[in-house]
What we know:
Elements: E1 3-6, H1 12-25, E2 29-32, H2 38-45, H3 54-65, E3 72-74, E4 77-80, H4 89-92, H5 94-101, E5 108-109, E6 112-114, H6 119-130, H7 137-161, H8 165-169, H9 179-184, E7 198-203, H10 206-209, H11 212-215, H12 218-224, E8 227-230, H13 237-248, H14 260-269, E9 273-279, H15 283-299, E10 303-308, H16 314-333
Parallel strand pairs: 1-2, 1-3, 3-5, 4-6, 7-8, 7-9, 9-10
Helix pairs in contact: 1-7, 2-3, 13-14, 14-15
Amino acid sequence: MIRVGVPRGLLFYQYFPMWQTFMEALGAEVVVSPSTTRGLATSGASRVVAETCIPVKAFCGHVLALKGQCDYVFIPAIRSMTPRVFNCSKFLGLPDMVRAACPDAPPILDVDIDVNQGRRELYQAIYRLARLFTWNPIRVKEATVLALEANRGYVEQMSQRQQTPPEALESLLPVGDSREARSSRAASRAPFNGSYRLTLALVGHPYVIYDDYITHRLLSRLHGMGVDVVTPEMVPQTALEAAIANLDGRSYWTYEGEVVGAGGYYIDSGVDGVIGVLAFGCGPDSLMVDLVKHYAQEKGCPFLGVTLDEHTGEAGLLTRLEAFVDMILRRKRAG
């Protein structure tokens, strides 16, 4: 049986159920890298230039962590998921970048996903990917249908049950390997002073906000402060698209709904505040988060922008969070 490794980074939280279903339907065994640690991130950072954003540095570390654990590492090049809407450059050339930066990694199994090339080219790309496992087109088609159904169910589960990706993925990952799920679960949400309860929107890409190492356990710290946190995955897709149209006219980058759409939706819904999280050096994110920031100011909604890299101090981040939450509490007490 062929073992295919999936790095726990970048688009993992968006598409892992789909990837796993597709690979297993074709007879492969799927292996997932462990949660991000200091050593893992450091090993990845040593392979790329300093200006590379921290999610990509961590991703390289995840690839290296799969050495000896699998026969291939699955790294897709996702260029576009919507017509005339394009992805960040780090995703466009990700397989080639990893090959150059990590020559000692397992062989890379890649596929180009670009809907602008037409449905025929997309299907051919999927069949080329599947040739490692089977040459039977009927089996590939069945695996593709199952994968799409798994992805649809995953998205609906998070929206309907108000779950974060780590919570929704907990049943798919090995027992004892669910640190992010435990972090994102609101185990203790006692309201401040017995009378005030805050709801904050945490907007950003899943590969940033759900990585406990990169964010210094931001989600669990907010829960520990007695804050109810809502995230982009909890918003219906139609509401995300409507919010993007309201703030930005139309989408320009893939995954804009995770920032612009979710931020606009939650600001209009009356949350107590919004925290925008982005990785240092990311051009699209800086523009999208700034758009949400200006909309929050226009609507009188408190906004905190958090920029993260490997040098972000845990104490400084915690101080900013405590000050932001305290400011909102004082505002609520003032009426």
